[in-house]
Amino acid sequence: MGNYLSAIDDEWQQAWPPKPTWSVDDIPDLGGKVAIVTGGNSGLGRLTAKYLALHNCTVYLGCHTLSKGEEAVAELQVESGNNSIHCLELDLSDLESVALAVKEFRKREERLDILFCNAGVMGPPLEMLTKQGLDLTFGIGFVGHAYLTMLLLPVLLSTAKTTPGNKVRVINVSSSAQAWAPAGGVDFGLVMDTDERKARGTSMLMLTQTRWALACFTQELNRRYASQGITAVAVNPGNTRASASRYTPTLTRWALDHVLGFAPDPLGVLTSLYAGTAEETSDMGGAFFWPWARVGHARDDTKDEKMGSLLWEFVEEQGKKIM
Q1: Is residue 2 part of a domain?
Q2: For the chain, the helix, strand and coil percentages under 3-state DSSP, each to the nearest 5
């Protein structure tokens, strides 16, 4: 009962956060830095890219549909006055596409300072799977991002060696839903195309497991690479009117639009940008940030080293399917 009440209290504090003390105007000059933002052609990803570009960052939008990505690039270049905005074709539901996107990025750039793992899908029909046969929510939100991060480790590590302070950052966009994941965080039998999943799986269960996995993977990434200059953090961006997806139930969408949701610009990206750019967060590896731009915490078991290792190995095994 205590854990349940604690989760409710945490949820309340994140749903109605205090006025922020940090703003997008506090983003430092990012000239010379390179960032990737997944889901960068729309929603919170596009807003994240906009504010990075406004502060002179070279930004790559990771986009499922190339034409939409190129359209967003053209618009953002006009809005920001920054022509160093580019598109990467990136389908996180297909690990082969992830590998190709990384290969293309490495052709264009020799450094990567900030990786925003922002893309996701909420509430798709359970019969929808990734190219490798995983639940779509879990496959895009967690596995695709984790695999992307793993493939980008060489350029992240080499960038850290040449950066003042020797720091690069990985920002994993989780949410308060991580607190409602099942015991143990992830039931691997439910995220693959199994009879168990068909019998017990629900859209909410897939969402909570995905958000928990992102928080747990962040801890594992930090354990493995903090000493080599990678600052990995997870964030809850908060409830905004950009939080819903095309699969969001009508009632939930109405609640986000009219009751729970705040205007997304700039609040919806404030926490991610704080974690990814503020000088004071550069050494906060393993932190979980709450809205708006403040240090919070995830569920205690996201720090479980055994599960962190299992998640890492699970992603590696999925990656072997395309080799």
Answers
A1: no
A2: 55, 15, 35
pLDDT given at position 66: 95
Instruction: Quote the number of domains for the chain.
Output: 1
Residue 245 is encoded by which pair of tokens?
């997806």
Mean pLDDT of the chain: 92
In a domain, 4, yes or no: no
The stretch 192-217 carries a mean pLDDT of 94
Q: Give the residue carrying structure tokens 């960038």.
A: 159
pLDDT in tens, 20-54: 999 999 999 999 999 999 999 999 999 999 999 99
Tokens coding 284: 């906060």
Task: Locate 6 and state its tokens.
Answer: 């604690």
Task: Answer yes or no: is 8 within a domain.
Answer: no
- Give the SS3 label for residue 184: coil
Which residues have a Cβ under 8 Å from the Cβ of 109 and sit 6 or more positions away? 34, 58, 60, 155
CA distance 8 to 260: 15
Q: What is the pLDDT of residues 12-23, one digit of tens each?
A: 788 888 999 999
Task: Give a yes or no: residue 1 inside a domain.
Answer: no
CA dihedral 284, 105, 311, 92 (to 10 degrees): 120
**Cβ contact 110:178 at 8 Å:** no
**CATH code, 147:** 3.40.50.720
- The pLDDT value given to residue 239: 84
Range of the domain at 302: 26-320
